[in-house]
Specification:
The protein is an alpha/beta fold. The chain has 8 helices and 5 strands. It has a 5-stranded parallel beta sheet, sandwiched between helices. Bound molecules: thymidine-5'-diphosphate. Thymidine-5'-diphosphate binds next to helix 4.
Amino acid sequence: MLITFEGPEGSGKTTQIKALAEHLCAQGRDVLTTREPGGTPIGDQVRAVLLTNLENTDMHPRTEILLFLAARAQLVEQVIRPAAQAGKVVICDRYADSTLAYQGYGHGADRDLLRRLLDFATGGLWPDLTLLLDLDPEEGLKRKKLGGEWNRLDAYTLAFHQRVRAGYLELAARDPARWVVVDAARPAEQVQAEIRRAVDARLAHAGH
Ligand code: TYD
């Protein structure tokens, strides 16, 4: 079972994933969490080039796409696929849909081409369930300035982040069997309760 969390900056994915993992572990499940980009030694080096090195201001969008995909390919083969095959519940903090939302809707890259590249990078591994923590990017960036770790992409315009949000909502509307949209503007406990309901229902449906 592969569960992914998506959403704009500051939507609380990390906190919510931690609480969900505790809930699933308490049910006796074997849980593995990952975060993108990174999560492997090679992926962490790519993360530094993509995000933490704020000097990389002239990165071309195609370069950005290929680096995100490179980090993901490594994470899938080294971590995600082996864990899923071992029967674990794998929870990813961002996955392929981040590329569609940020590089596709945000930068305007060809989304059909991106889907083919994503198939290549992931070896065709797509999530069983995707939770979209939906939040107004203005609010998200405000939250992030208060406490989060600032990255190179946060400096993109608000219009970019608005396109990302709209893109996520469109992806979710097109595939309601996989996506659940959660209003992340509410208090964290309410958001977590809704996430748990969605995940428990999906696990029960899948016979887990
Ligand atoms: P991170 O610090 O992990 O932030 P967040 O808490 O918002 O997840 O930064 C990840 C950044 O990389 C975030 O700005 C989204 C972006 N990103 C892409 O643009 N494309 C991708 O494929 C992925 C995985 C992330």
